[in-house]
Write a structure and sequence with these properties.
The complex is a heterotrimer of chains A (269), B (364) and C (308). With 364 residues, chain B is of the alpha+beta class. Chain B has 8 helices and 20 strands. Chain B folds into 2 domains: 226 residues, 3-Layer(aba) Sandwich (Rossmann fold); 121 residues, Beta Barrel (OB fold (Dihydrolipoamide Acetyltransferase, E2P)), CATH 2.40.50. With 308 residues, chain C is mostly helical. Chain C is built from 12 helices and 4 strands. In chain C, helix 3 packs across helix 9, helix 5 runs parallel beside helix 10 and helix 7 packs across helix 9. Classes of the chains: A mainly alpha (269), B alpha+beta (364), C mainly alpha (308).
Amino acid sequence: MARKTDIRHYQGFLPMTVLCMVLLYGPLIIVMVYSFNDSLSITRWGGFSLRWYYDVFFGLEAPKFQKAAFNSFSIATMAAITSTTIAVAAAVGMIRGGQFRAKTASFALISLPLMVPEIVTAVATLIFFTTIGFTAGYATILVAHIVFCIPFAYLPIAARLEGIENIYEEAAMDLYASRAQAFFQVLMPLMLPGIISGFLLAFVISLDDFIITNFVKGAGIETLPTAIFGAVKQGIKPNIMAISTLLLLLSFVFVTLSWFAGRMGSKNP
Amino acid sequence: MNQTAIDIAGVTKFYGSGPDAVRALHDIHFQIQHNEFFTLLGPSGCGKTTLLRIIGGFEDISEGTLRLFGEDIQNLPPNRRPVNTVFQHYALFPHMSIRDNVGFGLKMQGRPPEEIRRRSDQMLELVRLSEYAGRRPSQLSGGQKQRVALARALAPEPKVLLLDEPLSALDLKLRQSMRHELKQIREELGITFIFVTHDQEEALIMSDRIAVMSHGALQQVGTPEEIYNHPLNRFVADFIGETNLVEVQVREISDSGATVAFAGHTLACSVNENQAHEPGEIAHMSIRPEHIGITPGEEKGDALRATVLRKIFLGTDIHVACSLPTGEELVARVQSTAAGVAALSPGDGVTLDIDPHRIVLLGD
Amino acid sequence: MAGPGNSRGFQGVFTPLRYWLLLPSWLVVGFFMVAPVLIMLVYSFLTKEFRGGVIWEFTLAAYDQFFLDRGLFGDEPPKIEWTYIGIFWRSVWQAGLATVLCLLIGFPTAYYIATRPPATRNIWVFLVTIPYWVNLLIRTVSMKFLIRDNGPINEWLLSAGLIAEPIHLINTPVAVQLGLFYSYLPFMVLPIYAAIERFDFSLCEAAADLYAGRWFALWHIIIPNVRPGIVAGCILVFIPSLGAFLAPDLLGGAKNFMIGSLIEEQFKGTAGNWPFGAAASMILLSVVLVVLFFNARNRATQTSGAGH
């Protein structure tokens, strides 16, 4: 009955949605399932087992993956902290800066890393570091990631700040707060959900990046994606599926955290 | 004892610059006395909020000076002015408890924690919200938030309190009781209040003095009685209360007043100080509806005769709209119990009686 | 400048600091993004050195190599070189097709989600968001695992007797397309969802009241109103698809090169040609900038049109 009267209902949109979900999740779920496969042949089901997870942590290739994971997580942490800090400052400057001449240009600049295809960024960064003689390695990856993460951190932070009226910082200053106090005691706590979302997004983007890292890393250093890529080139082995499943779960945790950060914000003003 | 709290001299405010500049305030002059309840009244867009924000330090002045107790404060940022604001939408910090909100100003002033606590609790007691000290702003009703905003602005003992349409978001009942409460609190604390509103009734009830503004310019400053009874110009007469604005021709000017020709009759009326009129000039006159008396039936002599057009019942009063033989329309407001009024119906002849002491010749 | 007074309009609490606040982002993005692209532009006009790297001598050789064929020894009259243009064309074509497929699946999904009651809607959005956050490499590897000749799909179909031979997908253009489509589908759903969620459905009620059918309302009322979301989704799918590296590399193999793989190859090992790679990157970047420019202009005319 409701369907007849619900003007917004279209026949066939639900099946399309289900299809979309199956397409999005099918491959991921199958990889997760097969990561628990006891069989050495990765396609025949040989019963449930955690042996590939054991292999990831204690097997032959474990030291390689552990080192790559350490690089990935340390770079992601530093890149996310730095880019979020830059993005918070930029968001306050843009959203609270009124109208000024460089506004459009600034926004274009901040979102540039998002607009330029990753492969182009990768090539440009490699050429740049080579030209100025900056040795490829950990530091180059970190710098490239900071730049690349800025727009991802910026967008949720700016969106949040746009939803906060400027009366709060005015009220703070009216009550004898300095600019710094108005920011750290009033505006920043109000922006916090956006800052958390921006930080998490930047962290995940850094953790996921393959192309740019692959270009600028040089020999002798691997992050998780480049290590996985190298391994996959020699064929998909079950331990890759176990690593993939672990990273999948990590992404899931991050989305959930980001989700609750957003929730925490919507309850406030 | 009559100290000047705020002295505004020649304040002009432009938004933008160059040929696109918009003038928001034009050459504003007035003084606010210490301990006064002063209201900035005008329709939206008249510049009253801009003026309040200038006093608070949130906008700069293009021209003119602003003094607080004799001291030039126009270059002080908001956090260095001993002036606090009750914001229109309260602007309570959502991430802090009510007590922390109230104590924020004191904390920023660097007062010792025990003093902050004592003073916040004292302020919450003043606005009767002591039991809500631990709650968050989102758990309070509109009227309660309003009182917290007031307590927060009063806690640091400002020399002047600014109130930006603080009652506009409340419903009628609450607004009426808050008017009372605000007045009481001001009397108790003895500080200067500058109140912004577009509600003329609110302004008349609460203020010691009112500044009426329109289009960025000051129209009149005076006590509620002065503003109501002796409006300086058409805008003030029309904006404050109800009135009949009629066109008259000036006959004679004397020291005590003037005589004017209106609808074929000669009327005596008062003239405001500093207002020049010439005999023969066409001017406007304000006649309040309650200053027009109605007698049923057409009297002889040179009384003002009229025909009833319509009658509106307002409870204790009745509005009677009448048309004069010369075509003008006048509205009279009489008590419902007045003799013969209840029986009037459209088309009836009546005699109007205008109180000459109560009508004012207006400037432009 | 010569205006009355020196007022600069409303001064917010942080307004005076705006240039200082923006300075770090200008410096970082300017120094590590804009400058590198400019240097890359310079590189594309330099002479290639063997073993990777360049000699600082100006030449148009890289662009020449991309567009023109002068024979094996470079002494024949120039003809158009179709190899690289072909790779480029294949990239545009694949990216365009991925965009269309994503739109076909993404729009109904976004619409369905946006018209759910708020509680259910949040769960759906959450479900679409997760793949968006999942490592692209892992998602591409999953797809590769799934569609291999001896992958789960073929195994199941074979054992169910539905097919006699495994369906050969890997290293075909279809596999690349599948990978692109799968990679960027969430990028299509989310912006369209955001646009539909803001759409005022009382417009549809008004249309229905005036005897419009549902599909008419969809086409003439809803779609024109949510067009910015659709355009944003298309751009978010098209641009990364165009420069994609992982899907063509892992799923397409050597025969299904796209521009991303071509560029990558120029910077790997001794066979590389840095000026040529830089030139190919510049060509890719120009296409993207043209797309973005037309989008920006389109939006500018739309908003000025709506201003009446």
